[in-house]
Amino acid sequence: MSSNGKTDLTYLSPDGWFSLAYPSTWEFDNEENCTSFFKQYEGVGALQISAYQADTDQHAYDILTEYLRDNGIGAGTTLEHSNERQEAAAAEFENATSFTRIWIITRGFYLVFVTYVCEPSSREVEISEVREIVRSIQVAV
Questions:
Q1: pLDDT for position 1
Q2: Is residue 86 part of a domain?
Q3: Are 60 and 88 in contact (CB under 8 A)?
Q4: What distance in Å separates the CA atoms of residue 42 and residue 55, rounded to the nearest whole number?
Q5: Which of 32, 103, 113, 122 is deepest in the core (most CB within 10 A)?
């Protein structure tokens, strides 16, 4: 059971590259290149996750910094955690129409790209559940 008191379900990506726990009040939709998670009722945003395999070791902080620079996004990057298994970096930014938080999670040659987008006025509604889902991501090798 998650810290919010709801029963967690387990999701395994179709390619088996990552797994995560998500509350039973959320559902997902597998698309060709990503999986979208959203709250079934009264949801305000969408959590989208894509996984990639590279030819070389990937490093979350460097990848996210490069992504932000290449897309002209002026947001600072923070290294959320790094251990012998995987590392994660995150950044968030907002404009008049959307609040966005991006995570890059890496382990060896694998990279998981995660975004959460909602209206700026709703940014605090689901963010604790979203962070809990993202913290549960395990990159497989």
A1: 41
A2: yes
A3: yes
A4: 41
A5: 103
Q: What are phi and psi of 111, to 5 degrees?
A: -135, 130
Domain count, the chain: 1
CA distances to 19, 69, 93, 100 from 97, in Å = 31, 21, 11, 10
Task: State the residue range of the domain holding 62.
Answer: 8-139
Q: What share of the chain is helix, strand, coil (3-state, %, to 5)?
A: 15, 45, 40
Residue 44 per-residue DSSP state:
-
Specify burial of residue 16 (Cβ count, 10 A radius: 0-12, 13-18, 19+). Answer: exposed
- Mean predicted confidence (pLDDT) in 46-68: 92
**pTM listed for this prediction:** 0.88
The number of C-alpha atoms within 13 Å of 25 and in the hemisphere containing its C-beta is 13
CA dist 102 and 63 (Å) reads 11
